[in-house]
Each structure stands twice: as C-alpha cells, then as structure tokens.
Amino acid sequence: MHQSEELLNTYLEHTCDEESALLKRINRETYLKETMPHMLSGHYQGRVLSFLSKMTRPNRILEIGTFTGYATLCLAEGLQTDGEIHTIDINAELEERVRGYFKESLFDNRIRYHIGDAIQVIDNIPGQFDLVFIDADKKRNLQYYDLLVDRVPSGGLIMIDNVLWKGKVLQGNPDNQTKQILELNEQLKSDQRVDKLILPIRDGLFVLRKK
Fold first, then answer.
1. What is the 3-state secondary structure (H, E, C) of the chain?
2. What value does the mean pLDDT of the chain take?
3. Please, what's the b/e burial string for 44-53 (b: 16 or more CB within 10 A of its CB; e: otherwise)?
4. Residue 127 exposed, middle or buried by CB count within 10 Å (0-12, 13-18, 19+)
5. What is the pLDDT of residue 1?
6. Count of CB atoms situated within 10 Å of the CB of 6
7. 183-203: b or e for each residue (b if 16 or more CB lie within 10 Å)?
8. Strands across the sheet with 157-161, in order?
9. What is the pLDDT of residue 171?
10. How many CB atoms lie within 10 A of CB 59?
11. Which residues make Cβ contacts (< 8 Å) with residue 131, sequence separation at least 6?
C-alpha cells in the first residue's frame, strides 16, 4: 500500500464508527497468528459491511469465506432480532479459535458456522438469503453467484470481494486469475436480474441488488 493510500485509509477509519473491543482483538490476533492476515476485511470495510447489512435488515445472511470471523460479526450487526447468519469456511484448523470469538459476541446463538466445501454446504442449507457475501476461492466466484442469485429475493444484496484484484484488472496482459476476475465482472455487468455497482474499497467490493 502506498503512503497516500495508508493516509487515506487511516482517515477513513478515523471518521467512521469504531471497532468493538472484540473486533479489535480479532484484527490484532489475525495479524499476529495468520500467514495471510490481509484476507481480513479490516476496520473500514467491516464498517461498510455492517452499514449495508443494517440498511438491508436481513433475516438470513450467507457468508462464503469465514476466515477468522471478522466480517461475520460485522454482517451480523444488521440482522433482524430473530435472524441468522450462515458462514462457511474450508479451513478446519481455525474452527476452535473462530468459535471462541463467536461465543464472546452478541450473536453467538444466531451464527451457524459450517466447515466444508461451500458448494456442498450451500446445497444443504434450504431457503432464501436476504444478503450474501462471497469472499472465498476467487476461481469459483461465478459458480457461487450462479448458485445463489435465484435464492435472493427482490431487494436482497449479493456482495463479492476482491473484484479489482490489487488493480490488476486495469493492467495489460492479465494472468489467469486476473482473467477470471475480469470475466466475472463482465458477466455481472451484463446480468439484468440485478442492479450493480463496484465500490473501490480496499480490493474492490461488487454490490449487486436483486431487482
């Protein structure tokens, strides 16, 4: 991150709502213990996710890619009183620590934490989702989207992270993974079932609203 980006990020974090003590600890411990801590949503993006969730007031949320649970807790802040969030991750090694974080939160009884392949897990969770956040294997983003778009009601949101791919979507001679991101973005752009907008937050957040 360039110095100007760091300064902007610091200012954005300064002017939005503060993290809770638990979120601050998850952030800190992720950077201390994980080899790829940048996968964490972080303070500012976490507030964006919380804000959008509070605007949507979802009864059911689906998150693909739990990691250390930071975004899960941010999204849960917008749940209706009797709502629930299903979150899926492939990494069983993090399960004990993440469950510990959830137990400390206000949302423990509303979080359904699944370990396994997301495609298989999604098939085993019935019903619709008012809000979907996809932040997992980038190669399968389009597959996740196709599986879920018809399970989101009118007015519901689908959000997909990392769609600017560190700015590589603007560069010539893209590598294979960047080509997949570009293909995803072009297909979403053409999908008339949704209103769509990329927010240039961190690595790019595609927000799609079901018509």
1. CCHHHHHHHHHHHHHCCCCCHHHHHHHHHHHHHCCCHHHCCHHHHHHHHHHHHHHHCCCEEEEECCCCCHHHHHHHCCCCCCCEEEEEECCHHHHHHHHHHHHHCCCHHHEEEEECCHHHHHHCCCCCCCEEEECCCHHHHHHHHHHHHHHCCCCCEEEEECCCHHHHHHCCCCCHHHHHHHHHHHHHHHCCCEEEEEECCCCCEEEEEEC
2. 95
3. bbbbbbbebb
4. exposed
5. 57
6. 10
7. ebbeebeeeeebebebeebbe
8. 111-115, 84-89, 60-64, 131-134, 157-161, 205-210, 194-199
9. 85
10. 17
11. 52, 53, 56, 58, 60, 61, 62, 75, 78, 156, 157, 158, 159
In one-letter notation, the amino acid at residue 91 is N
